[in-house]
Design a protein that fits this description.
Layout lengths: L14 H9 L5 E6 L4 H6 L5 E7 L5 H15 L6 E5 L6 H12 L3 E5 L15 E3 L2 H7 L2 E4 L15 H8 L3 H5 L6 E3 L12 H4 L6 H21 L4
Parallel strand pairs: 1-2, 3-4, 3-6, 4-5, 6-7
Helix pairs in contact: 3-4, 3-9
Length: 233
Amino acid sequence: NFSAGQSSVKKGETLIDTVNNILSMKVDIVVMRHGNVGAGVFLSKHVNAKIINAGDGTHEHPTQALLDSYSIREKLGSVKGKKIVIIGDILHSRVALSNIFALQLQGAQVKVCGPTTLIPKHIASLGVTVETNLKKALEWCDVANVLRVQHERMDIKYFPSTREYTQLFGINQEILDNLGKKIVIMHPGPINRGVEITSDVADSNDSIILNQVENGVAVRMAVIYLLAQQIKR
């Protein structure tokens, strides 16, 4: 386990230098989370090892999309034909983009919902529709994947206050009870309880949040297992 914060990266060493030092210890697979978009692809072109992207900046998080897809299939039997809305901070979310690609590939309809300031400008070009009214989005969907507001990635103020965000886009049990149907609630974590989702919703029978955590272990084990089979000795 390696953290850049406690490494020679702080002293000016490049990413390639750092990883090559690790690879000199005969490492076959590098699982990498990096703040820069495309870091995993860059690294894969320069080092002789399998690279697993565990999140690159605000770009993608592929294994999260795999475990989310699996969790939906486990709960509903199939992803194909399901209506899935991703709610919240779409602009700064790597989970959102990977989910859009993965879910559409499996035949799901995908919608995004959130404040206009947190919806990427050209997201419709990915084949998703945009809804800024939470109630309409929830009435449409079979599954709601609720994202955390990523304050740590925001360099400007994207909405007036957390309180206003919660009033417009926070999900509570009363909202769900008024839908007249059951929907599945998901969240990639960590949860801001009382902001994007209340505790009674997160802990309800409609929530598969803990199933996502459990499935994440199995899915990531599977990724490593499949890549390990490709390594030639």
